[in-house]
Amino acid sequence: MTTVAQDQESRARATTLGRLGQGILDILQIIGEAGFLLFRSVRAIAGRGRTWERTMAQLVSVGTDTLPLAFLVSLFVGMVMVVQSADQLQAYTQEILGSIVGLAMTKELGPVIIAFLVAGRVGSATAAEIGSMKIYDEINALRTMDIDPVRYLAVPRLIAMALAVPMLVVYADVVGIIGGGIVVYTDPTVKISVHQYINNLAEWVNTKDIVVGLIKAFVFGVSIAVISCTFGFRTGGGAEGVARSTTAAVVWSFVLILMFDYIIVRLAIALP
Amino acid sequence: MTDRAAAPERTSSNGVTVEIRGLHKSFNGTPVLDGVDLTIEPGEIMVIVGGSGEGKSVLLRHIAGLETPEEGEIRLNGMLLPDYLRLQPQDKPFRISMIFQSSALLNSLTVGQNVGLRLHEYRSQPRATIEQTVARCLANVELAGKQHVMPGDLSGGMRKRVAIARALAVDPQLILYDEPTADLDPILTAQIGALIRSIRDQHGATQVVVAHNLALAVEIGDHIAVLRGGRIVDFQRADALRDSPNAFTQEFLRAAGLRR
Hints:
- The complex is a heterodimer of chains A (272) and B (260).
- With 272 residues, chain A is mostly helical.
- Chain A has one domain.
- Chain A has helices spanning 4-45, 52-62, 67-88, 97-135, 138-144, 149-186, 194-204, 207-233, 238-270.
- By secondary structure, chain B is α/β, with parallel strands linked by helices.
- Chain B is built from nine helices and ten strands.
- Chain B has helices spanning 56-63, 81-86, 111-115, 117-122, 127-140, 156-169, 186-203, 214-220, 247-255, and strands spanning 18-27, 30-40, 45-50, 71-76, 79-80, 96-99, 174-178, 206-211, 223-228, 231-237.
- Chain B has a six-stranded mixed beta sheet with strand order 6-7-8-3-9-10, sandwiched between helices.
- In chain B, a hairpin with a 2-residue loop joins strand 9 and strand 10.
- In chain B, helix 5 (127-140) packs across helix 6 (156-169).
- The longest helix of chain B is centred in the C-terminal third of the chain and has 18 residues, at 186-203.
């Protein structure tokens, strides 16, 4: 005969396992929905209907409107990197500062920082906008007008983010390197010249590093677009549901950015 | 409201026949539609009334193809609804429009862009012709010249009328209204009611209206179906509703102040 305590423990275990199982099922469901949305979006690109004007509007929203923030963030990241590295390298040599900033910006920090910025600024807005459209029946209204919501809403965002994030990354790389150069020029604790900084950078940063950074940016852009649209389309439950979708879209985007970052780095290192 | 005796004869039977047979739908194990049977003749205004949560909107969304039934079928002009929905837009023999309770206007577009959305999207007409269609549809709902206004700057009644203009712009043969007068004052309710009547008289489209407002239902409807417990429990000509022997209908009429 089981005691009351044993019974309670068994129920608690069942509840914990149940929650864990439900959590895993939810994650699989979201991955499935995101994959299907990506498939439908790619297929819809060739479909009937106008997309160009909406894509241009999204390009402005993702790209042009992000430029000021991307400038500030990248500039300070480049500056901080030189200050920190110069301090650590005082006992050794500061001549490698250019390669440190150049490689870090092009391979890692540029793509990841811009992706986080776009996920926080544009991904959240996308999830909120599509989520609101869902709860106010605007998406159903599109369906009754024979307008595919995936083509109308997801495709322009997917194209815009896939194009704009790599462009923003190139911009961020340049601004970050300039930021580092400003510190090299103005900070008395940095003992190298701007000329040495640029020479060292040019010596170490090669085409492969830049291409890997751009591939990352493209993958991050697609991931942010697909995830934010997926959470927008699966929104339910009024204003609270919109808030939940927005938060989930940003959190999922951040996790996917870092996950794909690792995968791409592993693949890039494995390649000759 | 429109004087029914003075209303002109319907110009054509432009509308679609809607046949609903044995429709079942449940949400989370709770039956919402429990064997709905209903036939709507072309060009008529069918008003579906019933209490809150009785499944009126769910029934309407099934007719629009936004919900899939668990059992039963819907035929439009004899064609099964799933077959109709599978057709490419340009191959569809008739068009369906729906006016949602929230109006469902796209807030990022102007009134004119909302009304001409489908036409622009499919480039079915030259731009100038689309602009003329938009202007005409807005004039039909007494919103002439409002093309460049944003939906957020309109009142609830105006938003509803824009939604109706958007529905009319695609020249539909079946128009579905989900609570078109919800949250509107009696004057705006009367205006929307008159508009629905005039659409029937001018376009001949079949119209299905889900409403709480029984007075409006009696005023505008050709037939009234009473939905309760997921079934049609009463079906009457609008002018014969007051004489219905159905106990629920009588209770509903008394609650609406249409019968002592």
